[in-house]
Design a protein that fits this description.
Layout: E1 10-12, H1 22-29, H2 35-50, H3 52-57, E2 63-65, H4 70-81
Parallel strand pairs: 1-2
Length: about 90
């Protein structure tokens, strides 16, 4: 994740990036509500937190890619990061 210092973060276009399943989150947050309310809350949670486009809007990923292009992005990342040094680390 970008928040813990990753240099590059790619996400597949059909991926999900939530810490918790949307239905489970809604069941926990709205445990006393009826099924219709929990279903609506799950859909909202999915849209706001689980999708890769939502993560991209929050700058949590650098690029949303198609799975078939993964190799190209990984190779480019390795080439870019090949000479990177880490101050005080084993690579410097």
């Amino acid at each position: 994740a970008k928040a813990i210092g990753a240099d590059l973060v790619f996400a597949w276009s059909e991926g999900h990036l939530a810490a918790m399943d949307a239905k489970l989150a809604a069941d926990i947050l709205y445990e006393k509500a009826d099924a219709a309310v929990r279903k609506e809350a799950a859909a909202e949670y999915e849209a706001r937190f689980s999708g890769v486009l939502a993560a991209a809007k929050r700058a949590q990923v650098d690029a949303v890619i198609e799975p078939k292009h993964t190799r190209k992005y990984v190779v480019a990342a390795f080439e870019m990061l090949y000479t990177k040094g880490v101050a005080g680390g084993f690579l410097s």
